[in-house]
Amino acid sequence: MSNSLPVVLLHGSWHGSWCWSPVTERLTARGITSVAVDLEGHGVRGPSPSARWARPFDAAAFATAPSPVAHVTASSAAALLIEQIRAIGAGRPCFLVAHSMGGVVATAVAERAPELVAGVVYVTAIAPVSGQPAEYYAGLPENAGAKVGPLIVGDPQTLRAARIDPGDATRRAAAKEAFYHDVDDRTVDAAIALLTTDAPRGIPGERLTVTRERYGSLPHSYVVCTRDNAIPVALQRRFVREIDAVSTTPTTVTELASSHSPFLSQPAALTGAIAAAVGSA
Question: What is the pTM of this model?
Answer without folding.
Answer: 0.97
